[in-house]
Design a protein that fits this description.
single chain, 370 residues, alpha/beta, Rossmann fold, 4-stranded antiparallel sheet, 28% helix, binds iron/sulfur cluster
C-alpha cells in the first residue's frame, strides 16, 4: 500500500448511486428542570437541518469543531438516536424513527467504529468474544463456525488469530482499533461510520489504521462516513468532504474543490489553520484567526449561525440562513455547495474583510499571519 504525501489529494474516484440520503435532519436534546415535574426549559440544537448524500463506495469526510454536531449526526444515521425531524433514507429504505425491531435488519448494514479503542472494548471480555458479538446479536453463527469466522476477521484486519483468547489490555492502541474494525466488519455492512477512528492514536499508528480502512474499502466495496477534526487526515481519506458548524452543513464538495477553492468563510478559516510542512509556504499564507468561541447550541445565532464570527457578515446574514447551493457566479460544479450569502472568491483575502454588523467581540475579526 502506498502512502500519500501530506497535503496532497489522496482520492478522486467515480462512485455509484446514492446509498444514504439525509434530508432536513434535526436533533434537539431537551434540557429539563425540576425534581418531580420535569419541565423542558431549553433545547440543545445538536443537528439543525442537515441535507447530505453519501454515494455507494465513497468516503465522505465530515469535519468541524468540537460540538458542531458531527457525532450526533453519525448516531442519527446509525439509528442510535431518534430524529426530532427530517428523514434518513438508506439503500432505498426510509429509516426515519423506525422501532428497534423494525430497525434491526438495517443495523447489520450500518456499523460504527468509535474513537476510543480503550473505552469501547470491555476489558473483562476476551477479544474473540468481543469480535463475535454481532454474530450473537443477530443470531448469525454459533460454536466452531463462529470461532472460525472471528479468526478469519482477525486475520483480515492484521491481528494474529492465535490471540483469540487474549484480553484487550494485552493489545496495543492500534491493535485495539483493529479489534473495533473487525467487529464492525463482522456482518459485512454496506456503510461504516468511522467516528474519529484515529484521533486517539499515535501518528505512525494512525497511518496503519487508515491504510487498513482503505484496503478494506477496496476489498469489500465499503462506503465510509469518516468523522475527524484533523483536516490533513480527512483530505487523505475522503472523496468528498462536508464541513459542519453549529449543527448545519456549511459547505460540501469533492475533496480537491473544497481544499483548493473553499467558498465558505468558515471553511477558509479552518483550512488556513492546517499546518503545512513547507516553511516558505507557511510564511507566505495568511492565517485567519476567528474571534470568539463557537456559540452555544442551546441558543444558536439567528440566520447564518456563523455570523457572529464571520469577517464578511452583513445584516442579511443575521436575518436569513442561506441555502446550501452551488456558487454559480464562480462556475462551481453542481456538487460543490456552500451555505453563504457572500461566498469567497478565488484569491480573495479574508484578512482584509470587514463585517457590516457589530459582532460579539470588540477584538479585530481577523489577524493576518498569526
Ligand atoms: Fe454566514 Fe454571511 Fe459569513 Fe456567509 S458571509 S458565512 S452567510 S455570515
Amino acid at each position: 500500500m502506498t502512502a500519500v504525501a501530506p497535503g496532497t489529494t489522496g482520492r478522486q474516484a467515480e462512485h455509484g448511486d446514492v446509498l444514504l440520503r439525509v434530508q432536513g435532519a434535526v436533533k434537539h436534546f431537551p434540557i429539563k428542570q425540576g425534581i418531580v415535574l420535569q419541565r423542558e426549559v431549553a433545547r440543545v440544537h445538536a443537528v439543525d437541518g442537515v441535507d447530505l448524500e453519501v454515494r455507494r463506495g465513497e468516503t465522505l469526510g465530515l469535519v468541524g469543531e468540537t460540538g458542531c454536531g458531527k457525532s450526533t449526526l453519525a448516531r442519527l444515521i446509525a439509528g442510535l438516536h431518534p430524529l426530532t425531524a427530517g428523514t434518513i433514507e438508506f439503500d432505498g429504505h426510509d429509516l426515519s424513527n423506525l422501532s428497534r425491531k423494525a430497525m434491526r435488519p438495517y443495523r447489520r448494514d450500518i456499523q460504527m467504529i468509535f474513537q476510543d479503542p480503550y473505552g469501547s472494548l470491555n476489558p473483562r471480555r476476551r477479544v474473540g468474544s468481543i469480535i463475535g458479538d454481532p454474530f450473537d446479536i443477530h443470531g448469525v453463527s454459533k460454536g466452531a463456525g463462529r470461532k472460525k469466522q472471528v479468526q478469519e476477521l482477525m486475520e483480515v484486519v492484521g491481528l494474529n488469530p492465535e490471540h483469540f483468547n487474549r484480553f484487550p489490555a494485552e493489545f496495543s492502541g492500534g491493535q485495539r482499533q483493529r479489534i473495533g474494525v473487525a467487529r464492525a466488519l463482522a456482518l459485512k455492512p454496506k456503510l461504516i461510520i468511522c467516528d474519529e477512528p484515529v484521533s486517539a492514536l499515535d501518528v505512525s499508528i494512525q497511518a496503519q489504521v487508515i491504510n487498513l480502512l482503505d484496503d478494506l474499502q477496496k476489498e469489500f466495496g465499503l462506503t465510509y462516513v469518516f468523522i475527524a477534526h484533523d483536516l490533513s487526515v480527512v483530505r487523505h481519506v475522503s472523496d468528498r468532504v462536508a464541513v459542519m458548524y453549529l449543527g448545519k452543513v456549511m459547505e460540501v464538495a469533492e475533496v480537491a474543490d473544497l481544499y483548493e477553492s473553499p467558498r465558505h468563510p468558515y471553511t477558509n478559516a479552518l483550512l488556513s489553520a492546517v499546518p503545512v510542512a513547507d516553511p516558505d509556504l507557511a510564511d507566505r499564507r495568511d492565517r485567519i484567526i476567528l474571534k470568539g468561541d463557537v456559540p452555544s447550541p442551546v441558543n444558536p445565532p439567528s440566520g447564518c449561525p456563523f455570523h457572529p464570527r464571520c469577517p464578511k457578515a452583513q445584516q442579511v446574514c443575521v436575518d436569513v440562513m442561506p441555502p446550501l447551493v452551488p456558487a454559480a457566479e464562480f462556475g462551481d460544479p453542481p456538487d460543490h455547495r456552500k451555505a453563504c450569502h457572500f461566498p469567497v472568491a478565488e484569491g480573495e483575502d479574508l484578512t482584509l474583510a470587514t463585517p457590516g454588523i457589530s459582532q460579539v467581540s470588540t477584538e479585530p475579526a481577523l489577524d493576518a499571519g498569526a
